[in-house]
Fold this sequence. Notes:
The chain is mainly alpha-helical. About 85% of the residues lie in helices and about 0% in strands.
Amino acid sequence: MHDISIISMIFTAALALTCLFLIISPLFKWDNYLQVSANGQDLATSKEALLTTLNEIEFEYKMDKISHADYKNLKRQYESEVAKIMKEEEQMTDSQVDQDLMAEVEKEIEAQMKSYKTKKGEGK
């Protein structure tokens, strides 16, 4: 009987700590501590959201809901954000291409070295 009460107390404590963690965790910014591995997907979704917003701004301007000055300012701001994201995407793809190119060059060098070693071994 004594064993059952200890086990139930441990289980209750674990359950209470889990509930407390789940309640408090939204109050902290875990994004600062966790790095998203799918950064390219984040850029793509951000770019898509900005382009959608640009379309909405243009639609509202055509419906005379916003002034010409506001339209120009908002359009310029969102276009510059889209341009930044597109630059980041380009840099990511360039670095990926560079890594792929370097890997391919290294493989070719290794193949040439093996070929050279076999030829050198045959000549002896």
